[in-house]
Amino acid sequence: MTNKIQDAFGHIQADTRLKESTKRFLREQSRGKFRAGYHPAVKYAVSAVCVMLFLAVGGVGYSWIWTPVSYVSIDVNPSIELALNRFDRVVSAEAYNVEGEEILDGLPLKWKKYTEAIDTVIECEGMQLYLTDTSQLVLTVVADSANEAKLTEGVKACTSHVAGGCHSTQADINAAPQAHENGISCGKYKAYLELSQYDSSITLEECRKMSMEEIWERIREYEEDSGTGSGDIDSGSQDEAVGDMSETGEGTGCEYGSGNGNGGGEMHRYGNGSSHHGGHHGGRHE
Amino acid sequence: MRSEAEINRVVDEYADMIKRVCFYHLKNQTDTEDVFQNVFLKYMTYEGSFADREHEKAWLLRVSINACKDYLKSFFRRNVVSFETLHEIEAKEPEESRGVLEAVLSLPVKYKDAIYLHYYEGYSAAEIGKILGKKENTVYSLLFRGREMLKEKLGGDGIDK
Questions:
Q1: How far apart (Å, rounded) are the C-alpha atoms in residues A265 and A262?
Q2: Nearby residues of B135 by Cβ (< 8 Å), 6 or more positions away
């Protein structure tokens, strides 16, 4: 049986032409691959390096895009803070009270340019309830020195058309973690520090519940009591006072808790010179 | 990727075997060459290693059989069939061998594989089972029925001398 099958199939052979054409075909298919002659280990190593590079680049990119490097606090009674990445885009928007949560609910802020995001917040329907003649809209830029001026300029542009009490100021980026740990926006934390200079009994919890208007009112009262002069406020209209704030609050480089430097804007707001706070402190301590 | 020398050795060593497998499946010169070259291409790009030459041969047989079956399933092949190779090769065969060849080629594929691997390549039923992915008993059954069918076609002792 075996012989019959072998006889039958034995004549079937691959001729030289078929073998040579196959070898030629395979050479063409492998052109370049033989020359490279990479060992599989080399290929795996190259692949691994590519993957690691991809992950590293992706990680750095992710960090660059998602890490907040500056903040803009928007405080009236609603207390909101926008976290901005290196490209001044909003990576997160945090509400620090119930009113803030109501404002942020459904507002599309993520990845917006900070100026657009501020416009969106200020112009939204919910915010209009809080922007009255007597309210204080305070925008606080919290950034390093390289970005502070640029961001402040953008904030000024956003608030230039806002009717009612509005001013912008700056705060030290290094104090931001402290504010956030205490569950309060940088803007309100700065106001708290300001007030606590006059009233050491004031607590963060109390400030958290107060509107910016109430905090500033308390500060103003202390200043008036100290006799350091709030003539402009007393004699002028709210709008005028606000106008002063708006003009002078910007770009004055406020520092948390600092003596003569803090509240440069407020100094002008209340119509006194650079000795305003220092004088006030002196009065209290005496 | 295997070296050029290694590929040339395999082509020289197994070309006849693969040509026979392609032939009894496809019976067509053009198709045979296509599948023939693709089998060696698969070998060239195969990243695994072989324990020995027997392992290598069995791998090539399994790949060849599967490649032929895949080719036969293709739309083009189902609709355009030429028998030029069959007639060309048969013309070279002695009278008696031609009859046996025609009888084997007329069997269903599963019987042809078993008959060829056992009677030409000399594999046992267990080895054929591994190559074809079938149980050993199934291979015995295929061989038995294949032999019976050949006996019917060829008369007498069939392929038994």
A1: 8
A2: B129
Percent residues over pLDDT 90 in chain A: 15
What residues does each domain of chain B span?
1-92, 94-156
Distance in Å, alpha carbon of B37 to nearest chain A alpha carbon: 6
What gap in Å lies between CA B31 and CA B81, rounded to an integer?
A: 9
How far apart are alpha carbons B63 and B17 in whole angstroms?
Answer: 12
Amino acid at site B131: I
Alpha-carbon distance of A176 to B102, in angstroms, equals 90
- The hierarchical CATH code for the domain B1-92 is 1.10.1740
The minimum CA-CA distance between B3 and chain A, rounded to whole Å, is: 7
Q: Is the separation of the CB atoms in A18 and B33 below 8 Å?
A: yes
Out of B11, B97, B120, whose CB is closest to A19?
A: B11
Rounded distance between C-alpha atoms, residue A255 and residue B19, angstroms: 88
- Written as six digits, the tokens of B45 are 């790009």
pLDDT interval class at A251 (50, 70, 90): very low
Q: Does B92 touch chain A (CB under 8 A)?
A: yes
Exposure letters A170-193 (e unless 16+ CB within 10 A, then b)? bbbbebbeebbebebbbbbbbbbb
How far, in Å, CA of A179 to CA of A207, rounded? 12
Q: How far apart are CA B99 and CA A186, in angstroms?
A: 98
Cβ of A12 within 8 Å of Cβ of B23? The answer is yes
Topology (CATH) of B94-156: Arc Repressor Mutant, subunit A (1.10.10)
Q: What is the pLDDT of residues A38-68, one digit of tens each?
A: 667 787 888 899 999 999 888 888 887 888 8
Residue B76 in tokens = 């083009």
Contacts of A133 (CB under 8 A, 6+ apart): A164, A165, A238, A239
Cα separation, A142 vs A7, in Å, equals 93
The full set of domain ranges for chain A reads 122-285
- Which residues does B157 contact at the CB level (< 8 Å), separation at least 6? B151
Q: Where are the alpha helices (DSSP H) in B27-52?
A: 29-45
